Every structure is written in structure tokens, then in C-alpha cells.
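WARN no homologs supplied; continuing
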Amino acid sequence: MPTPSLTVSEDRVSEKTSIALCNCIILMAALAPVFCPGCTGPVSAFPEEADTVQVATRVSLAAAGVVPSGIRCLDLFFFNDDQLQRLDAYQRIEGSALTAAVGASRSGKKILAVLANSNADRYRWADVNSLQGLAARTARLQEEDPSHPLGQALLRIDAGRSVTVSLAPLSARIRLASISCDFKDRPYAGAKLEDVRVYLTHVNTSSPLLADSVRVPTDFINAGRLKETDLEGFLYPGIVQARLPAPVGVGVQYPGIDLYCYPNAPDDRGPGTPSTRLVIEGTLLGTTCYYPLEIGLENGRAGVLGNRTYQYDITLTRRGASDPDTPLQPGVMQTRLEVLPWKEPDPLVIPF
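OK structure emitted
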């Protein structure tokens, strides 16, 4: 008896049955590791979902000294807020007058480190893989741009939420607000100090990138006096020295000169940690003389701290010293010091 042939309708039913069986087998194989604890294969993603979700964190910049108009680039580091504090994500954002940014990371509790106006390119951070690694890095005064000072912030956040970051400069600003001469009752009464230069000596040129990192200064330039060779590696040599445009006499000048240095306020002073000084150098009746001034004197001792403006009003009353590293005798000059937070008169908080 001849074998009966399958009808067309029977053949279609067979095709559908085969496809259904294949799909069922594939689905069971995919779910097996999830429902079978002893099976090999990937563990269920559901318990770890909160750690792997990518989220965007909106960062608004509230500037304390590093004004929004002076922010030209940001480095955002997201570290896990746990014992290891490993790097989770990093982004470099560049622009013009940045006031806000958006950073991407995994969800969860993070420690956000923000650097503003770093002259380092993104590849300098390639081997930073933890918060401790970033804290070990130092900034160099030679790379500072006074119009875009390097600033930093460090805070704990919940990734995915909007945050406001207050950026603070690492450096201190030394401002000569006013200067004059009052040589009355001296043989040189009425004389003017000519060819006047203003500069910093014993300048600390390195600082930890993060504010809560503490390190005794070890890198100094202009040890004892202004050294032109020490300024050769600076992008902006005017950051530590300037000239007055005119001789200084009885009339008060308001030069508004701003110089910059990194913190120098160790608990124990020694030969290796001299105080940073503001020096006024000029020629009086053909002889060069110097007026060195230890910066700070907060709480009775000299010391320069970051994120501050040390503003001086100075009146020269006698001939200065013959050496820029020799302390002045009492009465050689009168000074008024104001230690101010480094910020603009009207701080700006820019909402995102």
C-alpha cells in the first residue's frame, strides 16, 4: 500500500509546532540559571540592578572666589562612597564661562570631587582609580592662570539628584590695595621710592588637590629674594611679581596688585619652612632698599591659608632694609591687614 502524502494543511501545522517547541526550549534555557540555584551561568541581574543603572547628576556651580565667568573647564570624579572609595566614573567638560554641568555615573551613594580650571589634560588622570589616588595628587603654581584660578570641591551625594557645588580656590591672593610714603622729619622728607617692584618670596608652589589633604610645604621658589630663573617655568610669571607704574610718594596710590601663592602655614616653623613674604623693592635717593613683610599674622603668627585674600594698605615711613630677607626694624612701615574670604562682592548661585 502506497504511503499517504501529507496535505498542505498538515504540513503547516507541523511547521508551527516545531517553531513553538524551539522557542520553548530557548526560553527555558535562558531562565534556567535564574530559577535553578545550582545551575552554572550568569547570576540574576535583579539584585544588582540598583548598582548598574546609569544616571545623570546635575551639578550647579556656586562660586566662592572661582566665579562662574572664570570657569572654563571641569573635571568630575564620581567615587563609590564605601570603604574602598573606588572610581566609578570620570568626565572632562570644557566650555566658556561654565555655570552648570551634567555628569554620568552609576546610581547609588557617591563622593563627588570637582576640579575647576585645571591646566592638566584628561590623560593626566588616567591612572586615578580611587579617592585616595586623587588626594595624593598635587597642583603646581607654575600652571596657575590668575584669571582662571584652580578650584576644587568635595562632597557626598546621591547620584542622579541635582546638587550645588561651592568651588574654592586652592591658592591665596595677596593684594596690595594702597601704598604711600610718609618720610616726614627725615633728611629725605618728600623723597619718592622709584622703580618699585612688588613680589613674593619663599613661595610655596605645590598644594594637594583636595582641601582636606594636609601636607607640609616642601617646594619653594624665590628663597630669600626674587630670582628670575625661578620664574622661567611659569605660564604666568606675573602671578608672583609686578611693577608699579609710577614712583611712590606722599600721595596714596591704589595699585590693586594681586599676587598668588599656595598655602604655607605649618605648625612648626624651621629652616625648611620659611614664612611667605610680600616684598616691596625700590630705589630711594639712588640706593635700592627693601620692605619685606611676613604675610598673615593671624592669631599672632604668620601663615598663608588657601581660599583667602590678604589685603594690605601700606605706608612707608623710613628707609628700608638692604636685604629682602632681613626683618624690618619697628616703625619702618605702617601696615593694615584685612584677611577676607576669597569671593566676589556679590556671590552668585547659579541654578541649573
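The longest strand covers residues 54-63.
OK
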